[in-house]
C-alpha cells in the first residue's frame, strides 16, 4: 500500500467513525436516560478526569519492548454511572481534546482520528451499558 493510499484509508476511516458518532448522537444516544442513581457528577469534572487519564500514561518495559498503558477506562466507567450519555460524550470530547492538543500536541489527521475513536468509544459504551441495564438502576448488581 502506498503512502497516499494509507492516508486516504485513514481519512475514510476517520470520516466513517465521525459519521457513526453523529448518527448515534442524533439517534439513540440522545434518547437514552441519564443514570437514576443518587450521586451525579458534572461532565466538566469528568472531562478533567479523562484528560488526566489520557496524559498519565504508564510505560512498562519488558525486555526490549515498551508498552504504554493509560487508565482512560476508569473515568469512562465513572461517567457511565454518574453522567448521562450525552454528558459522557461531551466529557470525552472535552477531556480528549484537551489532552491530545495540549499534552500530546496532536494536529490534523491524527487528532481527528483519535477524537473520532474516543467519541465512538463513549457512544458505544453508553449504548451497551443502557442495553445491559435494561432500565434497572446502575448501582445494582447488573450495573
Strand elements, count: 2
Question: What's the overall average pLDDT, rounded?
Answer: 88
Q: Main sheet: which strands, in order across? A: 1-2
* Percent in strands: 5-15%
Dominant shape: globular
Strand-and-helix sequence, N→C? HHEEHHH
The main pleated sheet reads as: 2 strands, antiparallel
Please outline the helices and strands.
Elements: H1 3-31, H2 43-55, E1 58-62, E2 65-69, H3 73-82, H4 85-103, H5 108-133
Antiparallel strand pairs: 1-2
Q: What are the defining features of this structure?
A:
single chain; 143 residues; mainly alpha; two-stranded antiparallel ribbon; 2 strands
Structural commentary:
By secondary structure, the protein is mainly alpha-helical. The chain contains five helices and two strands. Strand 1 (58-62) and strand 2 (65-69) form a beta hairpin. The model has no long low-confidence stretch (mean pLDDT 88). It has a two-stranded antiparallel sheet with strand order 1-2. Helix content is 68%, strand content 7%. Helix 4 packs antiparallel against helix 5. The longest helix has 29 residues, at 3-31.
Amino acid at each position: 500500500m502506498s503512502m497516499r493510499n494509507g492516508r486516504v484509508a485513514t481519512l475514510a476511516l476517520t470520516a466513517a467513525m465521525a459519521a457513526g458518532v453523529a448518527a448515534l448522537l442524533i439517534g439513540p444516544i440522545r434518547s437514552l436516560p441519564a443514570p437514576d442513581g443518587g450521586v451525579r457528577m458534572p461532565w466538566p469534572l469528568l472531562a478533567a478526569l479523562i484528560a488526566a487519564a489520557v496524559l498519565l500514561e504508564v510505560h512498562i518495559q519488558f525486555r526490549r519492548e515498551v508498552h504504554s498503558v493509560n487508565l482512560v477506562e476508569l473515568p469512562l466507567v465513572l461517567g457511565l454511572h454518574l453522567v448521562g450519555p450525552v454528558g459522557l460524550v461531551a466529557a470525552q470530547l472535552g477531556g480528549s481534546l484537551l489532552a491530545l492538543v495540549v499534552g500530546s500536541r496532536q494536529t490534523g489527521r491524527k487528532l481527528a482520528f483519535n477524537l473520532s475513536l474516543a467519541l465512538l468509544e463513549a457512544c458505544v459504551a453508553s449504548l451497551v451499558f443502557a442495553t445491559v441495564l435494561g432500565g434497572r438502576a446502575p448501582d445494582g448488581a447488573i450495573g
